[in-house]
Write a structure and sequence with these properties.
400 residues; alpha/beta; two-stranded parallel ribbon; 15 helices; 13 strands; binds (2S)-2-hydroxybutanedioic acid
Amino acid sequence: MNKSIFSTVTAVPDDPILSLTGKFLADPRDCKVNLGVGMYLDENGVTPVLDVVREAELAIAAEHRPHTYIPQTGLPLYDRLVQELIFGKDSEIVSSKRACTVQTLGGTGALKLGVDLMHWACGLNIGATSKPTWTNHNDILRLAGYSVTGYRYYDASSNSVDFCAMAEDLKALPEKTLVILHACCHNPTGYDLSVDQWMEVIDICRARHLIPFLDMAYQGFKKGLDEDAQTIRLFADSGLNFLAASSFSKSFNLYGERIGALTVVTQSEDEAQRVTTHLKTCARANYSNPPTFGGRIVESVLADPEKFKRWESELAGMRNRILAMRQALADEMKAIGAKRDFSFVTQQAGMFSFTGLTPKQVDQLANEFGIYAVRNGRICVCGLNEKNVKYVARSFASVL
Ligand code: LMR
């Protein structure tokens, strides 16, 4: 028999985030808590279907539309509404049509399409990500043929962003590096840049001819939809070319529908149209055309001012529950006299908190207490609720 082509293939480690769900589900303990994957859970530990989403689902099902292909670029109205959501309705970018937006398979799909575009249409082959970053950023770049480098971001000793180091590293990147930046709710640290720091990043990108790619998976989870789009809008005002990845997995609780968008900002409508031809090829070669259902749900909400308002308030409800759980964890840690002050949890934004727990402590939490977190110390705050927060705090304190 011929030797198998796979005989030398070695197994690679499981995804450090997604694999936690399987471990959590397999754990028979009642006290178990899932602080792993970034997925919103309500007070009862369930990912709720938003009311506006449920209504849209029923309305779409009642239409009994045939399941045809939609364009490679997605639903045209959806694409336009995404631009209004990220840039603002009155944005010059929207009216001048110098940006193109395509519907993608979640935020991950947007990142993949963007790195493919910049590689094949513009010859980019170096990517830079923050240290640390969402682990998938590096894999997406690597599998698309980029060499990947990191820029310093988080400083563990001060438990904050080291902006001087970040700026220094960005300035040292080769021209035409694709720089992945977190538009809001930095994953995993929860620490974002200030407006002044973003302005400096913009200046560096301009001076060093770097191409910014803003990942905005958590719009609405820090302060609000408009507030959280501020970073994207600073880049929009700068006149730079840049890319933005949006996700509606989180803000609509539509994780399994894979619904997101890639927006590419160019200098003119003509450029945007030419870029779109490449995006169509990239979509075609990756998956042909995007799925329909999630796109129609989001489109129907974004298009209707009354539904949009209700979505905003449901989103605010999720955001406020997360904020309350941040406070509850910090308070509990203080009340039980934990060795370490955990008030920093209330200073971080979004779904995650970077706790400083070591891989050994995270393993101990899983083994002894059935509490699952990412081994880099990231916890998803959404997994906390009134019923488990005391238990989690006591468990954290006992491994410190
Ligand atoms: C996370 O970071 O947990 C989320 O973005 C989900 C994922 O795909 O990793």
